[in-house]
Structure formats: structure tokens, C-alpha cells
Design brief:
single chain, alpha+beta, GTP Cyclohydrolase I, domain 2, four-stranded antiparallel sheet, 4 helices
Amino acid sequence: MSERADLIEISGLRVVARHGVLEEERRRAQPFEIHLVVESDLAEAARTDDLSHTLDYGKIVEKVVEVATGTSHLLLESLAGEIASAVLHHFAPTAVTVTVRKLRPPIAADVASVAVTLRRTVA
């Protein structure tokens, strides 16, 4: 990657899905929040003001929702990894950072949420 890091951020994407280790979590849908930071060279888009020269964040959101509401995962790590792989494969950024936050974690403590963050780059 060059010295300049051009980023597209998608914050607070909420989905209702069935992920978790406990059977109850996979049986009853619960809220998740996803945050993405997508790294790509955005110089041409900045220069031309043309959507075809950037990564369409609307299409990225559609793909992330498709993944997050698709196959059930036991671990947030696995879900975040699948989201990162899908974004890298379908949109070809230089890197993506994915945070998946479980808003109602099934633990016996007053916790607002738990989250996992993964960063993946083009191999």
C-alpha cells in the first residue's frame, strides 16, 4: 500500500441474524452491528467525481447483509472472516477491516456489547 491510505467507512450497519455458540442464539435471531473500513486507492474517484472509479458502498452493504444474514456461525471471528473474504473477493480493495459487534451477548454481566475486529489484506 502507498503512504496514502484512502478509506471508505461503513459504520453502524445493523442486521438481525442467528450467530452464536449457544443453541438459543442460533434459534432466535438477535441484533448485530457491523463496522467496515475498506482501503482502496480513491484518487481517481476524487479527481473525476465518477462512481465507476470507486467502490460502491451501497453494493458493499448489500453483500455484507447477505453474508451476515446467511449461514449461521458459532463465532464472531468466523462471521467477520467470511465478511472480510466476501468484500475482498467481490470488490478488490487493498484491505478491509471488519468489526462485528453482538449487541446482546449472553453473559451474566452488564455488558453493552462484545466485538471482534479482523483486518485482511489482498494476498
